[in-house]
C-alpha cells in the first residue's frame, strides 16, 4: 500500500466506527465497553461519552485513540464532528 494512503485509511476506519456508535439506537457490546462512566475531576454530566483505541494496523501495532461525546438533546439529528490532530508528515 502506498504510504500516503495509510492516514486516509486510518481516518476512514475511525469515521466508520464513530458513525456506528452515533447511529445505533442500542449500542453494541463493543461500544458499551468503551463507555465512560465518569472522568477524574469531571462534574456529573447528562451526555454519554466513549473512548478507546481503534487498531488500524495490527502488523505495525498502530492504533488511533478516539473520544466521543454524544449530544445531550436529540443526538440523531446532530452533525458528527471529527477532529484530527496533526502528526508526523509522510
Automatic annotation (TrEMBL):
The keyword Signal applies. GO terms for molecular function: serine-type carboxypeptidase activity. Residues 1-24 form the signal peptide. SUPFAM superfamilies: alpha/beta-Hydrolases. Keywords: Signal. GO terms for biological process: proteolysis. The keyword Nuclease does not apply. Belongs to the peptidase S10 family. This is Serine carboxypeptidase. It comes from Corymbia citriodora subsp. variegata.
Amino acid at each position: 500500500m502506498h504510504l500516503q494512503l495509510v492516514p486516509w485509511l486510518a481516518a476512514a476506519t475511525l469515521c466508520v466506527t464513530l458513525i456506528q456508535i452515533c447511529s445505533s439506537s442500542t449500542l453494541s457490546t463493543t461500544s458499551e465497553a468503551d463507555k465512560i462512566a465518569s472522568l477524574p475531576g469531571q462534574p456529573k454530566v447528562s451526555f454519554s461519552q466513549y473512548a478507546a483505541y481503534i487498531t488500524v494496523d495490527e502488523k505495525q501495532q498502530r492504533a488511533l485513540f478516539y473520544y466521543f461525546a454524544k449530544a445531550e438533546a436529540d443526538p440523531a439529528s446532530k452533525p458528527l464532528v471529527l477532529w484530527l490532530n496533526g502528526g508526523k508528515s509522510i
